Hints:
The chain is an alpha/beta fold. It has helices at 36-47, 76-91, 147-166, 181-186, 201-218, 241-253, 280-290, 303-311, 322-326, 330-338; strands at residues 8-10, 13-15, 19-21, 52-59, 71-72, 95-101, 129-130, 143-144, 171-176, 225-230, 258-262, 294-297, 317-320. The structure holds flavin mononucleotide.
Amino acid sequence: MTRLFSPWHMRSVVAKNRIVVSPMCQYMAVDGVAGEWHHVHLGSRAVGGSGIVMAEASAVSPEGRISPGDLGLWNDRQADALRPIAAFVKSQGAIPGIQIAHAGRKASTAPPFHGGRFLESHEGGWSTLAPSAIPFGDYGIPEEMGEPHILGVKEAFSGAARRALSAGFELLELHLAHGYLLHSFLSPLSNRRTDRYGGTLENRMRFPLAVVEAVRGVWPESLPLWVRISAVDWVEGGWDLDSSVILARELGKRGVDVVDCSSGGIVPDAKIPLGPGYQTSFSATIRKESGLPTVAVGMITDPSQAEHILVTGQADGVALAREMLRDPYWPLHAASRFGETSSWPLPYGRARS
Ligand SMILES: Cc1cc2nc3c(=O)[nH]c(=O)nc-3n(C[C@H](O)[C@H](O)[C@H](O)COP(=O)(O)O)c2cc1C
């Protein structure tokens, strides 16, 4: 049996393989509420044979949305709309997961397919929050968060975690990556605070770790909690791999089960050397140095490449994003390539070669 198709035990949950549909914003929600698009999008990837299907970054509060079309989990109507989707994903033998997020100073933008630029309030945008009043590129200047904001966002994260549970998700991922709010507290490029939330690494980690603790407090012991990080900022003087290893150890102490290792996003002009598996070495280092299981993500497209990452101990799972948009049946194709006996959906059985 290949490592890719070996079961993955996390607390009480067992994923049937190590293939993760990476969270991907669809910008198709109305008032943060999922619709038919989300059902079909996530449902087809579950039918396609992935072990874990992670729903996109879902905002913990209205101002935490990247765009007006983001999914949300700040009210019960949003959880109600996600419930049948999580149930369908589960019915196909995949673990239904969801990422919760606050976009911070990168909020209030148009969806990428409508240009992705910052939206002013007269265009339907809103004022944004950040550790310091430093804008992302040419976006609006965010408001520096005071203690009440800090408390409020922490509560919003635990409220969203409770709703994710009530909607039937069995795996929760916290978004600490890509320049969004919690990452912007970690990075010295966006956090210039002089209080206990800024300055030293310990101080910059304080708020993200408080959110992790609050969420772990409401997310059941029996279910896995993942954290996605940007392992590096790709900018001199920014967040780096050594800091990520220290963060991962702290996450492990707080009951985080897996670190999902992405990178970048804190500034618009970082030079990122894109190429196959360009972030995998971060996963390998974090896994080795922190002892925590990891997921590798980023230009993983070929089944042999994915298998190689796992058998060489660089990660415990692989997440695929764009390749899953090109081919929702990637896991079924990979299984055929390796001669694995994956279970095809019964109605599709006659198409199996
Ligand atoms: C359409 C799209 C939407 C995305 N939305 C999210 C998201 O909601 N949360 C997140 O952490 N990453 C998001 N990403 C990043 C992907 O999860 C992934 O990390 C990145 O695309 C690299 O993987 P790939 O080379 O397999 O596409 C998104 C990527 C794409 C292409």
